[in-house]
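Hi team,

Filling in the usual template for the complex we talked about on Friday. All components are listed, including any nucleic acid strands or ligand strings, so the model treats them as one assembly.

SUBMITTER: L.P.
PURPOSE: interface mapping
COMPONENTS: two
RESIDUES: 419
SEQUENCES:
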Amino acid sequence: MRDSADMERAMGEHADAVWRACMLYLPPCDAEDVFQETFIKLARHTEAFADAAHERAWLLRVAMNACKDVLRSARRRDVSLDERLERVGDEGLGAQAPCETGLREVLDALDALGDPPKTQLYLSLVEGYGAREISKMCDMPVGTVYSWISRGKRRLREVLS
Amino acid sequence: MTDAEMRVRDAFARVRAPEGLKKRTIAAVEAARAGEKDALSLVRAAPAHPARLAPRRLALRLAAAACLALALLGGAYVALTPTAYVGIDVNPSIELSVNRFDRVVGARGVNDDGAGVLQGADVMWARCADALGIIGERLEQEGYLDGDAELEVTVTCGDNGQYDAIEAACHDRLGDASDDVSCSRATEEERHAAHECGMGVGKWRARQDAAEAGEGVSAEDAADMSMRELRDLSPDSTVSGHRHGGRGHEQRGGPSRR
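RESULT (copied from the run log):
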């Protein structure tokens, strides 16, 4: 396993990005589980990363896949995300942002887009990844990523307008 | 970048991972490093919202819980069911219930003196041999084994191996306390008949012997008499012959005596 100092560093550098990714898909209580799970996987991932960007991309990919697994499992159990979010309520968003309602509206808007393009649009707009990087993270051809991002932006304008 | 895109970026830009979560996660990593199996559950914060379980998952958990409960009930039933009753008669009359694992699962005084002896003796869940040793010490301390006191142990048990073990324990743990210890096997019918008369099997048999010798005593009187006093009513009776022979009770040979 990675040593404690390395994990402290990774936590300092990537915790916010991983937490945002978890919040994109899940209510806070489930997001916390995935967040912890993601960093435990990192601790057990002994292969070296090329750089911090490579490490962050790995973490986001692991976190997003874990979130989608949770959602798939919830769907199998016939529990809708809407239902889960309703039960959590606004306060459950847990963001330390002053404008929680704004985050909630944005999350609702992104959910309304469907996935794709939610993930591709998020990685592009919020995390600043280019289509080529997103294509690797999402196992999707670059052209398709471009197409989804473009379509997502168009729909986002409609939803948030 | 359009307004909508800016709103998305700005909303997420304000989101920070809670410090508490980061600390718990580091703790979880350290716990995982230490080899703990369920690191996540150990360090998870108290849920802000009640746990939610889907019906199917809940049903599975309930089924598992039911199976566990059945297994526990089955185990408890086996553990609590006596497979041998060990009667100890001096004047105090005591009965121990012993399970198949050689543990005492019940102890009662058949008469008041027996109950008094048990009050100071912690024998529940003890091995049968240890329980006999404890009771022997208590009988000695209370002066019940002074002089020529006779101590008779009767075992109602369907398992030959268990009987042999109890018989050996009887001589091993009670032999030092009394010079006159005998152990024999009794039937369930004898046990019930003795208890109906308010005495242990040892005394019940001695009373029967006395009656056959023409020295009948009432059940009430017999219950208050010591084994030695009852034996003295029929001095011709012997352990190996008269006392246990010819009664038709389930016996694997004569009683052992020390």
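MY TAKE: Chain A has two domains: 1-96, 98-161. The two ends of chain A are 48 Å apart (CA to CA).

Thanks, L.
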